[in-house]
Structures are given as C-alpha cells and as structure tokens.
Write a structure and sequence with these properties.
3 domains, alpha+beta, Glycosyltransferase, Beta-galactosidase, Chain A, domain 5
Length: about 650
C-alpha cells in the first residue's frame, strides 16, 4: 500500500498509508531501522458502547493531505456508525525527534458533549525485530516506554481531562495473540504494566465530543533523553511545537522561490513545492538520500528501496541545488564521496550510515572477474558536483572532494574503456537488470568526464584536464558511430558483449533511458533527436493519454499484458524525461506546451496528497511499486525548472 503522507526531520521519519495507518517509523537514520518493520499501528474510537478502528470499515478517510507548503498533515476521518468526524494534524518536530498528533473531535449532528475514548496502539519492532523488545508503564510521568538496547520510545499525550487514563502492555504475534489493540474493542484496557519479547501496548484517553487532544512519541537513545523530550513537550506545549514546525517548513520551501511565471498550468507550481518538501523527508541527517522509505516493497522482494544509490542521490542532489537547497546537496556529496572504492568507482548502493547495501551484482561473470557496479552512478556524482560548482563556484565546498573523489573517479572513467571501440567496458545498466554497454551509462560517463576536465582545468592541472576531455569526446563520437542502427533509424539502448567484453550486437528495445540523455548537454546530436521522436511515440501509454512507459515489454510490477497501446506501466521519471526532450526541441510556445502537457500529466497522476510513486497502473492510475519515489519528485523539480527557463528564453526572442 502506498505511503500517502511522509513527514520527517532528517533523524525521525514517519509514513502513513492511505488508510491513515502509521506504518513506518525510521530512527535514528532515515531509511535504516524501521522501528515498526512496516506493521501498522492502530488508532481506535469508542462512543456510546460502539467501537471503530481508523482505517478499517469503521472510519473512512475523507481527505488526506498536507497543510499548504508544510510537512504538517491535514486529515479528516468520518464514521457514520459512530456519528463522528475526527480532524487530525501530524507533525515531526523540525528540530527534535518528536512525533505529535493533534485530534479535534466533532459530532456529525453538530452536538457537543458525550464521552469519547480514543485508543492508540503501537506495535514496535525495535531494530526491526521483536526479539528482546520490552514495554513498560511509568506511573511517575505517566507514559509507556518501549525499549531495546539503546532504542527508546516514550508515548504519552494530553486531553482536557489530563493524561491517558488506562493502558495495557502485552504480547503479540505469538501464541495466537494479536495484541493489546484487541483488548480495546470493549472500551476498557486491562492495565497490565509490562511485557517482553514480541510486545505491543495500547493507551486510552477520555474526552468529550467537541474537545481536542494530543498524542505524541519521543525517540531517543536513553530513558533520560526521551524523558527530557517529554518535558520539553509539556513545558512548551504541543501547540507551539506544531506551530513552529509549520512555520519552519514554509520558510524552508519559500526561501528561494524560482521564477515560474511562464508555466500556465496552475497545478504545477504547488506540486513543485510539494516535491521539494517530499524530497526533504527522504534525506538523512548524515547526507544520504534514500530512494524511498516505503517499506511495503519488502512483501514483494524481501528487500526495500531504503538505500542510497549514487545515481538517484546525484540526480536528487542536483535538483535540490538547482531548486535553492544547496546545503542538502553539499551534505550528500560529503556522504557519498568518501565511499569511493580504491579503484575509483562507487559500489552498487549503501545504507544511510555509509555501510554497503545489499546487492545482486556479481563480481564473477563467464568465468572472469567483473566489476559489480553501475558505472553511471560514479559518473553522475561527478556530473552533479560539476553542475553545483558551475552554479556557485564555491571552491571550499569542492576542495575536500577534489583529489580524493573527482580526480580518482574521472581517472577511472577515462581508463575503464574498450580501446577497440572507445566505449566504456561493460557494467550493469541503470535499471539494474542487464550487463552490457548502455546508452545511458555512456551519456553519464561523457558528462562525468566533461565535469572532471572542467575541475582539473580550474585547479590548474591541464594535463589531467586534457586526458578527461579527450576521453569524453572520443566516447561521444564512438557512441554515435557504434550505437546507430540505419535500418531502424535510431540509437540502441544497449550494446551486448561477448565474454571478453567486446561489442557484438545492438539491443534495439525502445527504452526511456535514451530520453534520459536529455540531461547531458555533451550528448546533443541530430541522431539523438531522431531517436527521441521514435521513443516517445513507441512508449506512450495510450489509455493514460501521455504517460511514458519505462521500456517495451517491461515485466517489473507489470499491471496489464504488454501491447502496442500499453507497452508497460507509465513511469513518472520516463514521462518527465520525455518532457525534457520536448523542452530541448521547443522553438515556440506551442511546441513548449507539448512538454508542459507531460508535466501536467505527472501532476494529475500524483496522489491527492501530492505524493508521486515510481509507476502507475495504465488504466486505474493507482500507484505501483514504491510511493513516494524520491527520484520522481526530484525529476519533477528539475523538469519544472527547465520548463520555466525555456519559457523565459522563448519570451525574450523576437517574433
């Protein structure tokens, strides 16, 4: 189930699914240690002897959104059976590892008074396992504290009548026990004060219809730390923490507003700001940019997107820098650059603490050693660094990375070449599916080498600059020589190789990765423009009226049988790449409007909250795979900026 509402502050991140279940809680790193392991936490209401759980048949979300330009949720829930409406605001404090929920209660008939009992259950899996978990009631606070090792979570709250008035701590997921949330359904909790192992805990607040209450969780690495945070909430008042965080994010997203006045679709600019805010929820305080904190994919592959890829991270960092948030881009480069391997390349992916992530890339192929990498990941970090330097010329930001990353990475890219063709030696493709020589990898490498040459020239090392520049230029020429197919009239997505790594055959599958070459100025060529025109036509998903599939016969998360009308699921990235090609080709406002229509398609296929998934169903438009996908949002940001810039350029041209 997609995550409709992610919120966070770089150390603590919380995700809600579309039923308003709190499903993911990441602490102390974003993307590492989901302290619920994706298990939903229950929120229930008792009124006049009847009970309903939020997210089940009893309560239905009327709306799930954010307050404008903030990471504060705005959720409305209704239960016809209970005759009740709840309006909730959720927030992770911008500075402290504290999650807060404000709940306002309303009777559907407008009456006030009458007793309500609200129940909050948390099913933590601290360190992503139930083994060794403990939960206990602390009467002196009062609070429920969950803990294991150095992971502590304190849960408390306030209603007009005070703190919670009942609790139950018990076991779940063992011996047929579902958890203490079942104990809540009669409106009364039994009061067991402690449990260990696979545990959960539920607390009850009593208030009247028409009143407001607060619920919160404080996260720390000791009991003293979470007690300090609880005192902070009580001293300042939860209203102040919510208000200051609302103000912070509005300041953050509006700090450097771009000029978007040439964009005529009014839905695009709000989603531009929402995309920046969404990206911020996926960035760890140490600088790692997570592909997605949606944990639900674990059901599909027993793994997640909770990793830092060099490719995704570089593209996201570039959009953040271009969108006015250079500090996050700089933190990413400080995170990723020290991870360069001695050979001058980055590994497959990393955890947000910098340790290697899981991999399916083999270091042995066809009886020979092979580099288990995607070369474009190394090249894109170098390319993004170069773009940041070109924008700001901040020498002191670049200096720590110059010798240790820039020169080493560029030297690797210049040397990892087949002398017979001038093309890169085989690696894995950006989709992480096939081995060979890939068009997108070539484009990224050419752009990375151009950045390396620019850096070396700027730092006075002309010999290295010449080596990098010539290697990149030769590679671009070789690409158009070896990858062009006269019979089809377009470029190949991939060159297949023999065990020795030599090019033997072209793979002519229509692939949106060829549209992705629009990011790299160094790859401009008439043959590329001809290729784009074909690829856009082949990959357009007809029922979606403009969405672009990843490639023909794509089997990943396939929703419907592939056909000429439905070559695959529409991807936000692919659609935005197609828009970028049209932006490059646009010569007047009418042709630019064709690009804007693709951006508008993305805006109209986001969730109502503004969250964009990786893919959508070709007919129902339901999100598929992970949601949010950080890359989708960053591609939206960079494409909107390119669209606005081209609009301004065309507006200044004489008629």
């Amino acid at each position: 189930m997609p995550r409709d509402l992610p919120i966070g502050n770089g150390r603590l991140a919380v995700n809600f699914d579309r039923s308003y279940h709190l499903t993911d809680v990441y602490y102390p790193n974003i993307g590492k240690e989901n302290q619920t392991a994706g298990h939903p936490c229950h929120f229930g209401v008792w009124r006049d002897g009847r009970f309903a759980w939020v997210g089940d048949d009893g309560f239905t979300p009327e709306s799930m959104a954010y307050q404008e330009d903030t990471l504060v949720t705005q959720v409305s829930l209704v239960s016809a059976d209970l005759g009740l409406r709840l309006k909730c605001q959720d927030v992770v404090d911008f500075n402290e590892t504290v999650y807060l929920r404000q709940i306002d209660t309303y009777s559907l008939d407008g009456s006030r008074g009458g007793e309500l009992r609200l129940f909050f259950q948390q099913d933590f899996h601290l360190l992503e396992t139930t083994v060794g978990d403990s939960a206990t009631y602390l009467s002196q606070i009062p609070a429920i504290v969950h803990f294991k090792d150095d992971r502590y979570v304190l849960r408390a709250g306030l209603s007009p009548s005070g703190s919670f008035d009942q609790f139950a701590v018990g076991q779940s997921e063992m011996h047929g026990l579902e958890g203490t949330w079942r104990d809540a359904e009669d409106g009364v909790l039994e009061g067991n004060p402690v449990a260990q192992g696979a545990v959960d805990a539920t607390i009850r607040f009593t208030l009247k219809v028409g009143e407001r209450m607060w619920y919160w969780m404080a996260f720390g690495q000791s009991l003293a730390e979470v007690e300090r945070l609880n005192r902070l909430i009580l001293d300042k008042g939860p209203e102040e923490l919510l208000g200051r965080t609302r103000s912070y994010w509005r300041l953050w997203v509006g700090a450097r507003p771009p000029k978007l006045d040439t964009i005529t679709d009014p839905s695009i600019e709000p989603l531009f700001r929402r995309s920046l805010l969404t990206v911020a929820t996926q960035v760890d305080h140490q600088g790692g940019i997570i592909a997605s904190t949606d944990y639900d994919l674990i059901r599909y592959a027993q793994d997640t997107y909770n990793y830092v890829w060099g490719r995704d991270g570089a593209l996201v960092a570039d959009s953040l820098d271009e969108g006015g948030h250079s500090h996050l881009a700089e933190k990413f480069f400080s995170f990723i650059c020290p991870l360069l391997q001695p050979g001058g390349y980055l590994g497959h992916k990393y955890n947000p603490d910098g340790t290697p992530g899981s991999t399916w890339h083999a270091s042995w192929r066809d009886g020979r050693p092979a580099l288990p990498i995607q070369e474009d990941e190394t090249a894109l970090v170098l390319w993004a660094l170069g773009r940041m330097f070109s924008r700001h010329h901040q020498v002191e930001v670049i200096r720590p990375h110059y010798r240790s990353f820039i020169i080493k990475a560029a030297s690797f890219l210049a040397a990892h070449v087949d002398p017979a063709t001038g093309l890169p030696l085989p690696t894995y493709d950006l989709w992480e599916e096939r081995w060979g020589i890939h068009a997108y990898t070539i484009g990224a490498t050419v752009a990375g080498l151009a950045a390396g040459a620019h850096f070396a020239q700027a730092f006075g090392e002309t010999q290295e600059a010449d080596v990098f520049r010539q290697a990149g230029q030769k590679m671009a020429v070789a690409f158009y020589e070896h990858f062009w197919n006269d019979q089809v009239g377009r470029l190949a997505r991939c060159g297949l190789t023999n065990p020795e790594g030599h090019l033997i055959e072209l793979d002519m599958t229509a692939d949106s990765a060829l549209l992705g070459l629009s990011q790299f100025d160094e790859m401009a060529h008439p043959r590329l423009t001809e290729t784009w025109q074909q690829i856009r036509q082949i990959l357009c998903v007809q029922p979606c009226d403009g969405g672009i599939a990843r490639y023909t016969n794509d089997q990943y998360q396939t929703a419907l049988p592939n056909s000429a009308e439905i070559p695959g699921n529409p991807w936000f990235i692919a659609t935005l790449w197609a828009a970028r090609t049209l932006i490059r080709e646009a010569t007047d406002r009418a042709s630019l409007d064709a690009a804007q229509s693709l951006v508008s398609w993305c805006a109209s296929h986001a969730l109502p909250s503004g969250i964009m998934a990786e893919q959508v169903h070709p007919e129902t438009h339901e999100p598929l795979s992970v949601s949010p996908l950080t890359w989708s949002h960053s591609a939206f940001v960079s494409t909107v900026l390119a669209l606005a810039a081209k609009g301004q350029e065309l507006a200044t041209q004489p008629n």
